[in-house]
Amino acid sequence: MISIENLTFRYGARGVPVFQDFNWHVAPGETWSIIGSSGCGKTTLLMLLAGLRRATGGAICIGGSPISRPRPETGLILQDFGLMPWATVWDNVALGLRVRRFYGPDGKHAPRSVPPTSRGEARQLVERWLRRLNIYEQRNKFPGAVSGGQRQRTAIARTLALQPDLLLMDEPFSSLDALTREDLQNLILQLQVEMSLTSVIVTHAIEEAAILGRNILVLCDPPNTEAVIVSNPDAGTPGYRSTRTFLDKCNELRTLLGLSA
């Protein structure tokens, strides 16, 4: 699904490389967390995968194709929700579908292999995801009139209505309270299974990395030259948060990050 070969990236011509000859591979259907200290390159790597930044050297391929711009099959969920404040919850969820219908399957705004979605089909998709994410009753409200958790559910619904094959998330729950954050983490785990999604989430929270990623990529201070990978096969299983295995995994991550257990 994702193949990174000899990636080099730096900010500015003379900056210290964030990544240098870095290699990393993600198979279809895998769930990954990326964790590391501030400034280590977590969000940079996600933006490179999203096609919003260009590598200085090396190659990034997704689905066998080199990434030179955002691909329509990739979904991106951001920390600040990215909602239009002047549009209702319904219209925010419908936005991507309307853009795709306007441009058609041009390979930039919509996959070439996906036929255009009619207005009726789009309405059905929007309603389906609003109901699935339990925000249908909020559909006529504006983002400023709903809770932070409902805004993030709106952002998730907007992304999943486009039926991505790769889901990228940049600290999507960091601004939410603990109960809402755990609720949305459980929702993402359910959707990963239901949709067989390949997913990559950037997080600064050790516990969240261990909950959401069956594989965890640990980044260090730049330059990152080697992918440090922690296997976490029990992630997503019922009751995992309260197991000794989960606590041990969190302590393993703390040790790798140079923190006391």
Describe what this molecule looks like in 3D:
This protein is α/β, with parallel strands linked by helices and 261 residues long. It folds into two domains: 1-73 and 166-261, 3-Layer(aba) Sandwich (Rossmann fold); 83-163, no CATH class. Helix content is 34%, strand content 20%. The chain contains seven helices and ten strands. The chain has helices at residues 42-50, 89-103, 119-132, 148-160, 178-195, 206-212, 244-256, and strands spanning 2-9, 19-26, 31-36, 57-62, 65-66, 74-77, 166-170, 198-202, 215-219, 228-231. The strands form two sheets. It has a six-stranded mixed β-sheet with strand order 6-7-8-3-9-10, with helices on both faces. A four-stranded antiparallel β-sheet has the order 2-1-4-5, with no helix packed on it. α2 (89-103) packs antiparallel against α3 and α6 (206-212) packs across α7 (244-256). The chain is globular. The model has no long low-confidence stretch (mean pLDDT 91).
